[in-house]
Give the backbone structure.
Amino acid sequence: MNLSTILGTVFVLAFILLVLGLGIWGRKRPARLFRDIPAFARLGRAIGMAVEAGSRLHVSLGRGGTTGAQIAPALVGLGLLERIARAALVSDSPPVATSGEGALAVLSQDTLRSTYRSIGAAGQYSPEFGQLTGVTPFSYAAGTIPLIHDGHITASVLTGNFGSEVALIADAAERNGGMTLAGSDNLTAQAVLYATAQEPLIGEDLFAAGAYTRPNSWQTASLRAQDVFRWVLVAAILIGAILKLLGFEL
Amino acid sequence: MMRGKTLISAIIVIVLGFVVLAGYFWPLPVLVSLRDLLLKWAVLLAAVALLVGVVNLFTVHWGKASSGAKGSIYSIVLIFSLVITLIIALYFGPLSTWSLWIYNYIQVPVETSLMAVLAVILVVAVVRMARQRPNLFSVVFIATGVLMLLGSAPLMGIEIPGLYGPEGLRSLLAQIPAVAGARGILLGVALGVIATGVRVLIGSDRPYGG
């Protein structure tokens, strides 16, 4: 084992222990408020308005592979999809999920099916609610755009691993006049989303979605653990820079 | 409260998740071989899921084409292209002349055209952003983008002094504030990825129905 492996192991284990500790501790205490992220408040309002208007909500999960870290933002999207599906059950128009990867399409169908089943509305579910729209970046975008234009979509949530092609999807959603909340783990996608999306989520904001939209002790605990470890990293970077400045070889 | 299939799915995910994670951090032969085997299974399942996804794509567009609704011609084109490509790739092979002809003369030009459209869309989006969000961050974003573009290719042959070269403003922006900002964002994303993974590992997030 080299030094980086040991540090990685300690880091991840400490993170898991901190989440577990904060999660158990937080069960018995009232949730403390985090800083305001207006995008999530607007999403809540958009869901309510879509339900009232009988229009559809769209969740795009990107095209991240399921065996790497690129799936993480799509997992956030699946959580939001479940929340949206539950809220939209009283509406005539069910939400629709699009993805550019086969496994994500299957996961979106599974999320929707289990949500419908859990509230006793399994008969309303259709596999067409979770669609694979293309398997290359631009075919995925090209397949998603008509769905936004023709599917009476009033709000789009784009959370997943995208490239620059996400600008085409976000632009279609903007032209449709609906609300667009978008975030990605990819820097290029974040840059284009900053310009194209109404509510861009930059950096770790995307991963706070669970704590803001369906808060529970574990979501809150993981967000607090992120905050703690961010400060640890900031301190480590600063100490490293100072030591280097003083002439120490690192 | 988890029940039945969901509980079984959660147990499988948690146990296998910890085995794969352990295989990365403790490279013991038994853990590494188990991790590799599980990842191979995951890749196989992802390939099967792709086939399921393609069937789903076909079904959705078959329904649209059959209904004769607005835009159904695009669904017909998609089904036709899918079937033709599938037949050619299966009969002649994915690396045959015909398969590569489809790729080089249809898919690549179509995707390149979309990339060209993307450039126009980004310019329009920047103008829209300036109108909808007229704040300091938008001004910095636009000014940086314009400077980087001008620094990459002189406008109509006119060179702006102090913008080009290793000591120029473009290099300065690209190497110091851009890299610092990107590292900050990436650190935040990495922490978010770890947090999401931990929530799946402890069974708090369950992106599977069971």
Summary: The mean pLDDT of chain B is 90. Chain B touches chain A through 68 residues (CB under 8 Å). Residues 1-69 of chain B form one domain.
